[in-house]
Design brief:
The protein has 235 residues and is α+β, with helices and mostly antiparallel strands. It is built from 10 helices and 5 strands, in the order αααααααββαβαββα. Helices cover 46% and strands 14% of the residues. Helix 2 crosses helix 3.
Length: 235
């Protein structure tokens, strides 16, 4: 490490120890992180990237391949940035774990934590007991920025293997609103119809957007989602 970079790291660490994380500016936080990634010119690089992406949050959620494309960021730096939301998700899920999903608010909280740091869409299914306690969760599909698809057979297999009678589905819209699209609505209707034949009830479908979260049951857009079909779960 160059002597000036080492000295700068020591200065930032001292400020961090004295004033805490909130005492560092956004630039200083990123610069300090870069001093651990073997990149050249961490201060200048931090300034450039914050100018382009606007925040550490946006930078950490960027595609690592795109970050490395122009050569300013090496692989180790890109991986380090990508780990930020992943570690945050793990810590959040452990600290604020939702064990029982009894209403739309707890469902939104439970599923929102699963999509922290997600670059593309993914579809999650969660089985709950009759008392609405979480039994098992699984990612059924990973997709692009705009689409994640899973077959009804995948959902049926999960329902049968977990032997659940009540389950939730959730997916994300990484770059947009959480309001359901026509295809989201059709998919949900088909899931309800196909799983009913297996004796399983879809309690809710949650969509996590870039800045908001939506519950299908709260919207009341599907007559198939009647309250009597998911006793113990309320909007």
């Amino acid at each position: 490490m160059a002597e000036d970079t080492k000295l700068r790291r020591e200065q930032l660490l001292k400020k961090y120890e004295e004033k805490g994380f909130d005492g560092l500016t956004e630039h200083e936080r990123l610069e300090l992180l870069f001093t651990y990634s073997r990149c050249t010119g961490p201060a200048a690089l931090a300034a450039e990237l914050l100018g382009e992406y606007g925040s550490i949050n946006a930078l950490a959620n960027a595609d690592p391949a795109l970050l490395m494309k122009d050569g300013r960021i090496n692989e180790s730096t890109a991986v380090l940035l990508r780990l930020i939301p992943c570690v945050s998700r793990s810590l959040y899920m452990e600290r604020f774990a939702v064990k029982t999903i009894k209403d739309a608010e707890s469902a939104k909280k439970y599923f929102s934590s699963h999509f922290i740091g997600a670059v593309g869409e993914k579809l999650i299914i969660t089985a709950v007991s009759r008392k609405m306690r979480v039994i098992s969760s699984k990612v059924l599909a990973y997709g692009t920025n705009t689409k994640a698809a899973a077959s009804y057979k995948d959902i049926a297999d999960f329902v049968v293997k977990t032997d659940c009678t009540i389950f939730f589905t959730a997916h994300n819209h990484p770059n947009g609103s959480s309001m359901p699209s026509d295809s989201d609505i059709l998919f949900t209707k088909n899931v309800i119809a196909s799983m009913t034949m297996l004796g399983a009830v879809l309690a809710d479908h949650i969509i996590v957007g870039a800045s908001d979260t939506t519950s299908f049951r709260e919207l009341g857009i599907l007559r198939e989602m009647s309250d009597k079909n998911a006793e113990g779960y309320h909007v």
